[in-house]
Amino acid sequence: MSSITHIKHTVKRPADSRDLRTGSVALALVILTTFVTVALPLLPVERDAMLFINQFAHRSVLVDHFFGVLSGYSFFSGAPLLALVCWAWFDNEEFAERTRILTGIVAAFGSAALTRLMQMFMPQHPRPIHTEGLDFTLPYTVHADTLQGWSSFPSDHAAVYAGLGLVLWRTLPRLPATFAVLLAALLCFTRIYLGYHFITDIIGGAALGMLTVCIASWQGFQQIGGWIAQFSRTRPGAFYALAFMMAYGIATLFIGLRSVISGLFAHL
Length: 268
Known about the structure:
Its EC number is 3.6.1.27. This protein has helices at about 1-10, 15-40, 45-55, 60-70, 80-90, 95-120, 155-170, 175-195, 200-215, 220-230, 230-235, 235-250, 255-265.
């Protein structure tokens, strides 16, 4: 009872107004980017921005390889975020803070599932590398058939990166929290540089990830998260066994699970 009471008390602290403001802005961005993507052609300002970034591609094998490694190898993307999640968890022994971390992480990855549903049920939106008339120059590490047939809006990677970045920003000390946000931003930019996403794809996905994390801070979700987090004390063996599976998913961004789910929907 004391743990649940403590959770209810912490949910009513000033962070709620911050979550409301952040969530409201994120919701507005999701709606705006969805409208721009579905109802409007590629805006000149976004086209110019994409081509400005793209002018640096296919000039240096080293630069293209750097961004290719960040995108293709989880050791340099998901694993650092996993390390920071572990830091946040073990650096915050207060039960309510661990509950916020747990619900935030689940929400961040839940947002990836939402992006996949949006991609499947919204009109097809080609990737920049497959957009006719854009004249996108492929980096050395990108093949012409990469992600062929996969809709680009919104970005599931951006949803996870931004969601985790928000969780880590609010729970880690300032230096590692800043590193987490900068890493999330770099990983999102990588998707633009390689031609996997338009800028609006990234903004929409990131906003959706942050929105779900803000929603997860609501009292009802915190109570559910507190019930789950309680197992870290009462059943630590089972809890951390499942936490290991979740941690592996974080490191790989659940690529195997997402591929299986996408394949199932493709055959329905």
